[in-house]
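Q&A log
Question type: sequence-to-structure
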Amino acid sequence: MANLDDVRNIAAGLSSCWKSLEGPTSEDLISELEHRLKAPLPKAYRNFISAFGRGGIFGSNVFGISTRRDPQDPWFECAEMNETARSEWGYPNQLIIIGGVGDGDYYALDIRDQNVEPPVVIWPSGASGWDDVEVVARDFFTFVVDWFQSAAEAIPESPNPG
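Response status: OK
Response body:
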């Protein structure tokens, strides 16, 4: 089963110009995120945010919490995205959006059953309910490791992105 060390291993082999994993996040900020989401974070996603805050590899970014711009004024990217999706787009409270697919659809954790590590699903734009959802991974780390590995393999040979 994939885990946080697998994410670290993928990132360790890459130049910093291709990765944007920001660094540790405090328990206080994670608790504030949970409060804003009105749901406890699943263990694996919580561990990712605790270790990295937010970020990803070569455009494959997991929403989270950023303190990079100003440690005294954190950016709750995950909370803002979910608040907008719930209030303006009708997304259910049993989803935690964790990333963008790139075409208006979003990757999300299906937290309807809080007794298990939730699967990652794609919630398509314009979805009318759970019947429109596609499960893409059985758990968060399986998804992130596959997503980041695919992104790492797509990195051009050039050492500089420009």
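Response note: The beta strands are 55-57, 60-62, 95-100, 106-110, 120-123, 134-137.
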